[in-house]
Amino acid sequence: MTQDIGDVVLEVEDLHTYCFTRWGVVKAVDGVNFYLRQGETLGIVGESGCGKSMTALSLLRLTPQPVARIVQGRILLQGENLLDKSESEMRHIRGQRLSMILQDPQTSLNPVFTIGNQLLEAIGIHHKERHQSLMARAIHALTQVRVAAPEQRVDDYPHQMSGGMKQRVVGAIALSCEPHVIIADEPTTSLDVTIQAQYLRLLREIQEETGLAIIFITHDFGIVAKMCDRVMVMYAGRVVETGPVRAIFNHPAHPYTQALLSSVPVMEERPERLYAIEGQPPALWNLSAGCRFAPRCAYAEARCEQEYPPQFTVDDGHGANCWRLESA
Amino acid sequence: MAQATSQSVPSITPESTTRLMTPSRRFPGLPLFILVFLLVLPGIFAPFLAPHDPIRGSLRARLKPPAWVQGGSLTHPLGTDKVGRDILSRIIYGARISLAVSLVAIVVSGVIGITLGLIAGYFGGKLDALIMRLVDISLGLPVILLALVFVAVIGPSFGTVIIVTAVLLWARYARQVRGETLSIRERDFIARARVAGASHFRIMFRYIFPNVINSLTVLATLQIGAIILLESALSFLGAGIPRPTPTWGAMIADGRELIVVAWWIAMFPGLAIMLTVLSLNLLGDWLRDYLDPKLRNV
After folding, report:
1. How far from chain centre, in Å, is Cα A254?
2. Residue in A88, A96, A170 closest to B192 by CB
3. Separation between Cα atoms, residue B117 and residue B171, nearest integer Å
4. Which pTM does this prediction carry?
5. Is some CB atom of chain A closer than 8 A to the CB atom of B15?
C-alpha cells in the first residue's frame, strides 16, 4: 500500500441504502466498504444504475426522501459516524467538511442571482461574518479555480459565462468552505474534451495545494487513469473490485472489470464492431443469492449462481469478489 | 418599385416590429396613466386634491348635476349626491380606500399564499395534498356569501374586508407558487444548495422564491383589480367599510335609487372602478408578456 498519502479521512463500512418502492425493495447500495485518505483520489466506476450516485448521496445523507433509506452501515468522517448525526449537525457538515460537485454546471447555478451572490450565500451558510470578509473568501475561492479577474466576474450572471467557466464556479462554491472531502459526480460529462482536461488538471492542482480527498464518480476509464489513485468498481450495488489504478488497468481480476476495460475503444484499431458486455445489469429488486454478474459472465460456474463470492486479495491493496480467485 | 422596396427594408427595425405586435405586447401607457391619476395620486394626496369635504355635504347644494349639464356649476365638477356631498371629492377619497385595501390585502394574501405554496411544492406528499385541498375548498367558496357571513360575524370594518379578501385570494398564490416550486426544486442548483448545507427554510425562501417573483408580480397586478372589485361589491352590499367613509362601491349603492333623476351619483364611481380594473388587467397582461423570458427579444 502506498503510505506516502495522509491519514484516512473517510471510511465507509458495510453501507446499505435501499429504496422502498411500490414494486419492492431496490437494493441500490448493498454492502459497500471503502476508505479514503487525505490527498487521495478514489474513483468509483460502473455502468448507469450500479449505485455510484446513490453511494455518494448516502455519504451526504441526501438520498431521495422518503423512498430511499440507509438501512445499515457506518460512515466515518474523521472518526465520527455521520449516521448518528442529527439533521442540523449534518447541515453543518455538508459543504464545510464534506462537499459535492454536481454533474451539470448549466443547471447547478441559480439563474436569477449573480455568481458572487451565490458564492456569498454558500459561504454565509457556514460562516457568520461581515460582508467584506465573506467577499474575500468568495474571491479567494474563484482565484483557486483560476477564474480570471474574479473581482469583476462576481457580478456576472450564470448565463453570461461559458460551460467550463460555470463548472469552475460550481467547483469554487463546493471548495469555498474548505471541505476535507469532496465528491465529484461526473463533473465533466457536460464539458467538451479540452475543457474537461483543463478542469481535471485544475482539480489535481487544488488537491496538491490543499490535501483535499476526492471521490470521483465516473464511467470514463480515461478520466480514471488521469485522475485517480485508487479505483473501486461497482456492479449492481456492490463493490466487485478495488485496488490501485495501475493494478486495475494492468491486471483486472474481476471478469466485470475486464469486460469494462475491453469495451473502451482503442483509437489505433478500427474494429468492425465495438465490444459490449452482453445483456443488462440485473433488476435490483429481484437479486439472486449468487454473484450478480454471473448471468453475463463468460466464466460463470454453478457455484457463482448460488453463493456470493467474498473478497479475495489479489495483490497488496488490490482485491476482487470472484470465485475464480479462490484457487489462485 | 425598386426604390419602394429598398426603402421598406431598413424600416423593419425593432421599434417598428413592436408597433406591429398585439396590443398586449405594447407598453401600456394609457392604462398606467389612468392608474396613476385615478388611483395612486388621489389615494396618496386626497386631502390636497379634493375640493370639498367628502363626508360633510351642504344641504343647499343637493343633487347638483355635473358642470357640463344644465344647472351644474364648476364648484361641483361631477355634481353632488342627495345630501349635497361633492362626488369628485368622494371619488378622490374613495381611491384612498381602494388603494389601501388592495395593497394590504395583496400583502396579507401574498404572504399566506406564497408560504403555503412553497411548503406544499417543496415538501410534497401529505402536506402538499392537505394544502392543495384547502386551496380547492377556498377556490370553490361562494365569494359574496362567505363575505357576508364574515361581516355578519365580525361586523363591517376595514379589518373585515382585509380578512375576507385574504381568505378568498391566498389560494391563487398558493397554487401558482406550488406549481413553479415543483419544477424548480428538481433543478440542480437546489441540490447544490442542499449539498452546501442549506436548511429547508433557506432553500425555500432564498433559492426558490426569487425564481417565482416574476409570475407573482403579474398575478398580484391582476389580483389588485379583483380586490378592488370585491371591495366595491362588499361596500355596495353594505358589508364593506362602514359609512360615511367614501368608497366607490358604497357610492354606487347610494346612487342606485336615484339613478333615474341623478345618474351622476352612481355613474362616476362606476366609471372609476371600471377604468381602474381595466387598466390593472391591461397592465397585468403586459407585465406577463414582458417578464416572460421566452417572449423577450423575439
Report:
1. 20
2. A170
3. 9
4. 0.75
5. no
